[in-house]
């Protein structure tokens, strides 16, 4: 405790704050990368005027509340107020649409990655660039607004992401880490900046609109991990900590996305490594040794925080429908007069799934709370289906929903592992799906036919990952590459638990996936007919 107190007093710490889809989390680590304190704020996106969004005031409420909870924990732990920090990093859910006018105010409410109304733009840009542009990417949001002739587009002065917005407000710097930037617009792997050939192609596409800007004018600058990205201003310090205790002048690392912080949190930044984040959404990422042979609409190409090429299979939906079913079981228990905490309930139901038939007994579900680009649904309709001869019991019911939560993601990963023959030794898992020991790992291992490991640091998540990136900025000269820093300074003593795929589980998942693909017209009928 004396050592922790000294680190806090001397500012030998790093603060990471990540704005996830359901929680804003703040983590303070010491110079040994161990967590000292944390804070959090729970929130949910809202469907407003047809768009999934988070209110701007709630963004700042969440950041301030998470920081306040962390600072209070520090004071309680060592009886020292948090007045200075060695470095700070911000991260958030990637992609989406935040555009600002001449007065630096949002022109339209924040449109998150979860919106699937950009198919026309995404397809047109993919064709123009010969490069996969997903609907959730910022450039697809922008071009769809262009195609829709939305009045605000002509007034755009700056476009960024949620992480970039927060960083800009606290430092005055309009910049992004390269991993986060790669979810806005394609990156030139040689320069580690936005691809200028594609920038010119985009400008030509919108030339007839005669906008008073070109794309380079409105995009942020791009930085790689380890580079300095500004300092906390006086106004920024007050916005982060309204109490006035936190001092200005603290250096910030480039803001990153949750994909990049997930790579860092699982030590998956070098070729042939991969990680999968499974929570509200699920995305599996593999650091590639070479470019793919062709463009696949199911595979996104992003980068590590250092600018190395990463293939991503992303599904908009993972645990949301699962969580809704668990909540229903909780309501049933309470109605029966049985009190049960959520951790026990999740653990019991998830472990029950392990008792189910390997193919989930002929049951079928789609946990599409929102649209799902991987299977081409612009809106979501969660549904559960069974045949008259299906084996309907609790174990198969839970196994079905666990399988289904990974179904869309598996379609993309099968392309990488089977069609492209990408080499992958193991996947590192993190996120809510893996909280119940062994269950999420077993399901993921069956889906990918690959060993799935969970590290003892995985529970720290993206907020810890961006704090590590903030610390790397301070220690970069000592270690060199990000990979060296993670291997030698962060994960040298880390332990992990690995679940290998069982052949019967792999076979059962493949049978389920045949049913999943053949049943997609049922989901289409639900989207078209159920309002």
TrEMBL record:
Gene3D superfamilies: 3.30.420.40. GO terms for molecular function: kinase activity. Belongs to the FGGY kinase family. Coiled coil: none annotated. Residues 14-239 form the Carbohydrate kinase FGGY N-terminal domain. This is Sugar (Pentulose or hexulose) kinase. Residues 275-472 form the Carbohydrate kinase FGGY C-terminal domain. It comes from the Bacteria. It comes from Streptohalobacillus salinus. GO terms for biological process: carbohydrate metabolic process.
């Amino acid at each position: 405790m004396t050592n922790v107190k000294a680190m806090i007093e001397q500012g030998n710490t790093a603060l990471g704050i990540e704005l996830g889809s359901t929680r804003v989390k703040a983590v303070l680590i010491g110079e040994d990368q161990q967590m000292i304190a944390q804070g959090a704020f729970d929130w949910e996106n809202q469907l407003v005027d047809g768009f999934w969004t988070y209110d701007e005031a709630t963004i700042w409420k969440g950041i301030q509340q998470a920081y306040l909870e962390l600072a209070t924990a520090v004071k309680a732990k060592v009886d020292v107020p948090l007045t200075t920090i060695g470095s700070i990093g911000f991260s958030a859910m990637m992609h989406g649409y935040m555009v600002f006018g001449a007065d630096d105010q949002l022109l339209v409410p924040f449109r998150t990655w979860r919106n699937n109304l950009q198919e026309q733009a995404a397809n047109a840009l993919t064709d123009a660039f010969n490069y996969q542009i997903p609907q959730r990417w910022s450039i697809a949001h922008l071009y769809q607004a262009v195609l829709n002739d939305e009045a605000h587009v002509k007034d755009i002065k700056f476009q960024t992401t949620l992480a970039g917005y927060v960083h800009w407000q606290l430092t005055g710097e309009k910049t992004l880490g390269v991993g986060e930037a790669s979810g806005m617009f394609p990156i030139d792997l040689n320069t580690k900046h936005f691809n200028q050939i594609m920038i010119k192609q985009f400008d030509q596409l919108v030339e007839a609109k005669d906008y008073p800007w070109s794309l380079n004018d409105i995009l942020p600058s791009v930085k790689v991990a380890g580079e300095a990205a500004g300092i906390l201003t006086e106004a920024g310090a007050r916005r982060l900590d309204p109490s006035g205790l936190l001092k200005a002048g603290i250096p910030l690392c480039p803001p990153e996305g949750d994909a990049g912080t997930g790579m860092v949190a699982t030590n998956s930044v070098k070729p042939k490594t991969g990680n999968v984040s499974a929570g509200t959404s699920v995305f599996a990422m593999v650091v590639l040794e070479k470019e793919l042979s062709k463009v696949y609409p199911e595979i996104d190409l992003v980068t590590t925080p250092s600018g190395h090429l990463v293939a991503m299979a992303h599904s908009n939906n993972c645990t949301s429908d699962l969580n809704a079913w668990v909540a229903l079981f909780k309501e049933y228990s309470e109605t029966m007069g049985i009190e049960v905490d959520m951790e026990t309930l999740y653990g019991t139901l998830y472990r029950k799934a392990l008792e189910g038939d390997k193919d989930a007994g002929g049951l079928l579900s789609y946990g599409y709370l929102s649209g799902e680009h991987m299977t081409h649904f612009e809106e979501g309709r969660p549904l559960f289906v069974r045949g008259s001869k299906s084996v309907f019991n609790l174990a198969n019911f839970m196994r079905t929903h666990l399988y289904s939560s990974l179904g869309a993601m598996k379609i993309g990963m099968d392309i990488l592992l089977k069609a492209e023959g990408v080499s992958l030794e193991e996947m590192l898992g993190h996120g809510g799906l893996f909280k119940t020991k062994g269950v999420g790992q077993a399901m993921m291992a069956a889906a990918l036919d690959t060993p799935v490991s969970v590290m003892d640091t995985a529970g720290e998540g993206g907020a810890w990952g961006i704090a590590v990136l903030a610390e790397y900025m301070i220690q970069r000269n000592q270690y060199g590459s990000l990979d060296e820093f993670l291997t030698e300074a962060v994960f040298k003593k880390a332990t992990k638990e690995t679940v290998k795929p069982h052949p019967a589980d792999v076979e059962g998942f493949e049978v389920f996936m045949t049913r999943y693909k053949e049943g997609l017209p049922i989901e289409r009928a639900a989207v078209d007919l159920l309002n």
